[in-house]
Design brief:
47% helix; three-stranded mixed sheet; 2-enoyl-CoA Hydratase, Chain A, domain 1; 10 strands; seven-stranded mixed sheet; 11 helices; 2 domains; alpha/beta
């Protein structure tokens, strides 16, 4: 498949699709890819499109210039230019709250609920809302040079883009409180120990290893992935055990009727790799 570059309407977010993988690159390297209103709007639109795009089986979120994302643009906040808000500068308080709620659901929320595997690829620092976006993804692969920090306490914020939810799910509420209250920096050795990242690789291998992982997922059983993710999300959200068991049963039986399952069973007997078609 040839590489397809999408026009996002802003240089703050670069997007391309290749071999079933959509790559979204946050592109404000001069500010460590701090969020901007244009970036968030473009990300929302891109993710909404990829959710139903039959040519996209996996989504990768990464950053340009050696960083992942510094979160809100604190310098922009100090300058009065918004600092990543999707609301206009003159908006009243209620409008600003509503605009942020919409943005959060359309970005971090969609990454979490997306019926396709999502990967955060961290070349460097993931801080604040940038960390939240990374934690919203299904898997995280990081350069050994990367660092993580909630950062919010350092700038007098309580936190946004789902970080408290995602972090609590990954490390428990006691550790989440520590990481939020103290806002210490975590290196990748500690992040791996805590389960905040799945893989840590040498910096020069990050892009290649990310795409290897993404393409492996893109070639996998898409219907099964969709329902695996829904099952896990239901359990993570505190679903009743009987509800979770019933949901698993429904999805398991459903996937048993897919072409992918029949192909996998045939490939098992023939001792070869299955060729999944996503149906």
């Amino acid at each position: 498949m040839t590489r397809r570059t999408l026009d996002t309407g802003t240089k703050d977010l670069l997007v391309h699709v290749e071999d079933g993988v959509a790559v979204l690159t946050m592109n404000r390297p001069e500010r460590r890819n701090a969020l901007s209103g244009a970036m968030l709007t473009a990300m929302s639109a891109a993710l909404a499109g990829f959710e139903t795009d039959p040519e996209v089986s996996c989504i990768v979120l990464t950053g340009a210039g050696g960083a992942f994302c510094a979160g809100g643009d604190v310098k922009g906040m100090a300058e009065g230019t918004g600092g990543g808000s999707t609301a206009s500068a003159g908006s009243d308080l209620d409008s600003r709250i509503h605009a942020q709620r919409v943005s959060q659901r359309a970005t971090a929320g969609r990454l979490y609920k997306m019926p396709k595997p999502t990967i955060a690829s961290l070349p460097g620092a993931a801080a604040g809302a940038g960390l939240s976006l990374a934690l919203a993804c299904d898997l995280r692969i990081a350069s050994e040079k990367a660092v993580m920090t909630t950062a919010f306490a350092k700038v007098g914020f309580s936190g946004d883009y789902g970080g408290t939810f995602f972090l609590s799910q990954l490390v428990g509420t006691a550790k989440a409180r520590e990481l939020y209250f103290l806002s210490d920096r975590i290196d990748m050795k500690e992040a791996l120990r805590l389960g905040l990242v799945n893989y840590v690789v040498p910096a020069e291998q990050l892009e290649a290893e990310t795409m290897k992982l993404a393409q492996r997922l893109a070639k996998g059983p898409r219907v099964a992935y969709r329902y695996m993710k829904e099952n896990i999300n239901r359990a993570a959200s505190g679903g009743d055990v009987d509800d979770c068991l019933d949901l698993e049963a429904t999805h398991h039986v459903h996937t048993g009727f897919t072409e992918d399952h029949r192909e996998a069973a045939k490939a098992f007997v023939e001792k070869r790799e299955p060729l999944f078609k996503g149906r």
